Amino acid sequence: MKRIDGAFLSLWTRRILVYLAGLFCMALGVVFSARSSLGVSPVGSPGNVLYQIALREHFPDYVNLGNCTTAVYGLYLLTELLILRRDFKPGMLLQLAASLLFGQLVNLASALLAFLPTPTNYAVQLIYLLCSVPLVAFGVMLYLSPKLLPTPGEGMSLAISQKTGLSLGSAKTVFDCSLVLISAAVSLLWFRRLEGVREGTVICALTVGFVIRQFQKLCQKPLLRFVEREDRVESAVRAATEGYAPDASAKPRIIITIGREYGAGGYEIGQLLAKKLGITFYDKQLNILASERRGLSLTKIEELEKHMERELVYDFRAGAYEMVGEGLRPEELLFVAQTEVIRRIAAGGESCVIMGRCADYILYDDPNCFRVFIHAIPAARIHRTMAKYGLSREEAEREMRNTDLSRSSHYKRFTGRDYGKQEYYHLGVDSSQLGTEHAAELIVDAIRQWCNVRGTHPLSAPEQN
Questions:
Q1: Which of 34, 68, 128, 425 could form a disulfide with 50 if both were Cys (CB 3.0 to 4.6 A apart)?
Q2: Where are the beta strands (DSSP E) in 63-215?
Q3: Beta-carbon contacts of residue 91 (< 8 Å; ≥ 6 apart)
Q4: pTM of the model
Q5: Which residues of 425-448 are buried (b: 16+ CB within 10 A; e: fewer)?
Q6: For the segment 172-230, what is each residue's pLDDT rounded down to a tens digit?
Q7: What structural domains does the chain harbor?
């Protein structure tokens, strides 16, 4: 018998443990929210209503919350089969195993939490409900990370998305709303009031996605490394940039990446650098190249760059559930396209200046990349913004604050790093003290020294002024 590789076994042990831990956290969250009597998350609402009916009609003990949840998940799977028809693959039947497992974990969680007193007032009910939100959120992130067996709840969203052409987030919204309406209708018909689906269902729908995103920021990347999985963006970047290695036979070159605070004069300094060194300056040209490579609308790219999608809106719409899908959202497609373009430029042996677009992160391991961050005191940035765009002080402050927040959020989301943190750059320059001209000269001198220390001379001497 062929010996099972120990590393392979260890990997699958980690994945299964993370998967089970995620389902159990979700089960604990379901029990807390059910005990609150304020309603559970949309996907669990039909099962909870069925359980409330069982309690009222004094059904046998085996008709419990976990088994009701399993029964409803079975209906989801049947509906998924009816939606997909010929596109339903035999392997999808394994979702039934996930349903049975999750139902039994709900029963286990119910037994473990049996000591909790029944809430006697609304404040305690609300506390129970709020305890359920982080448990469900953390559980969703854990159980989806290994990409093992999805439950029929996620399977239904994927089926709706596949058949309607809706994004997975929109399909999830349609599915959730349908479940809430069905649960409310059954509850009203049976109890003549809302029972098992109430304001807590809305609270869960609005908050779970947001909390998931906070957990993802804190621990998703190490979690994915632990189970040896790439997220969708990393996988897409790897596929898009495969084969873009620097040409060893090309002449020595240098790539200067510039990150900057809004209003610090980074754009002007980048242009001066390119002019002084006689090399190409890349800014808006990157958008044109990205549009050509990925078929994205140039107008859409510029819109995304100017108004990065606010995370809160995305959290409410989809949460982490898009982890089960393969498609990329527009801002993710843009990052992949820009990464491909930047890697292709770097592989081409061309010396250049690249503005923003996470280029310092994308080329962090390139030994010929010199990373600069331009900053300035707020007063100088506000004054520059007012003068450049004809804005009032209040408008300039608001534009500066919003743009910095957008850039920082975008950078953190795709790199996992803090924007402007000095340890990631070779040089930080305060343009408010030097001005753009002297700042550019300082950077040129620093680059020349850097090249001399490394024993490379890819640039000609700066032009004399």
A1: 68
A2: none
A3: none
A4: 0.67
A5: bbbebebbebebeebbbbbbeebe
A6: 888 999 999 999 999 999 999 999 899 999 999 889 888 888 888 788 878 888 887 76
A7: 6-229 (no CATH), 238-454 (3.40.50.300)
